[in-house]
Amino acid sequence: MDEISGRVEQLWTSPEDGAPMESRESVEAVEGGLRGDRYLLGTGYYSPYDVCEVTFVAREALAEILDETGIDLTDGRHRRNIVVRGVGGEELHDLLKTTFRVGGATFRGTRPRPPCAHVEQVAGEEGVARALKQKRGGICANVVEAGTVSVGDELELKEADPRTVGRSIADRLRDAFGGD
């Protein structure tokens, strides 16, 4: 778990439900989300019922989707805010219940972000929701400490979930000394 690291490859916000995602070089993470994004503004499709302040998705997951389905979501049609390279889909989910820093902001992973039919409708391409399943849809996170996040910033683990750390240690010991 302490080996998780990644780098911000893309940043996206959208001012309202259904509006195209807008690429950013940097964003300001504040209490409640990202400045200029639909969920902070309360204009998202699921606002205020589905509180997901900031969304993260792994670049590796988007690459798998392209390889397997031919669907290219690197244009932001995945509807996630922060695309991180170096944290594959499984590792990204290891950030749930952890505190991590990206650039000048600190986040806490709260839950998986599975796709919905609305994502596919807004993306305008059949198969998008299905492609984002199986841990490819990313995660939700809350802003713990405000700050600026920029393309190229490093993702750094601050505080791990004890259950995840325990599993990680057990796996390493099993690998090192054999056994089931």
Describe this entry's structure for a reader.
- The protein is α+β, with helices and mostly antiparallel strands and 180 residues long.
- It has a single domain (5-177), classed as Beta Barrel (M1 Pyruvate Kinase, Domain 3), CATH 2.40.33.
- The chain has helices at 38-41, 59-69, 89-93, 117-123, 128-131, 162-177, and strands at residues 5-13, 22-24, 26-30, 33-34, 54-58, 82-85, 99-102, 105-112, 139-145, 147-150, 154-159.
- Strands 1-6-5-9-8-7-11 form a seven-stranded mixed β-barrel. Strands 4-3-10 form a three-stranded antiparallel sheet, with no helix packed on it.
- The two termini are 20 Å apart.
- 37% of the residues are buried.
- The model has no long low-confidence stretch (mean pLDDT 82).
Supply database-style keywords.
single chain, 180 residues, alpha+beta, M1 Pyruvate Kinase, Domain 3, 7-stranded mixed β-barrel, 11 strands, globular, pyridoxal phosphate binding, MOSC_domain, Pyrv_Knase-like_insert_dom_sf
Give the helix/strand layout:
Blueprint: E1 5-13, E2 22-24, E3 26-30, E4 33-34, H1 38-41, E5 54-58, H2 59-69, E6 82-85, H3 89-93, E7 99-102, E8 105-112, H4 117-123, H5 128-131, E9 139-145, E10 147-150, E11 154-159, H6 162-177
Parallel strand pairs: 5-6
Antiparallel strand pairs: 1-2, 1-6, 1-11, 3-4, 3-10, 5-9, 7-8, 7-11, 8-9
Rg, please? 16 Å
State the low-pLDDT regions, or none: none
Which architecture name does CATH use? Beta Barrel
Mean pLDDT, as a whole number?
A: 82
Strand order of the largest sheet: 1-6-5-9-8-7-11
Q: What would CATH call the class?
A: Mainly Beta
Organism: Halogeometricum pallidum JCM 14848
Region (Disordered): 1-24
GO molecular function: catalytic activity; molybdenum ion binding; pyridoxal phosphate binding
Pfam family, one: MOSC
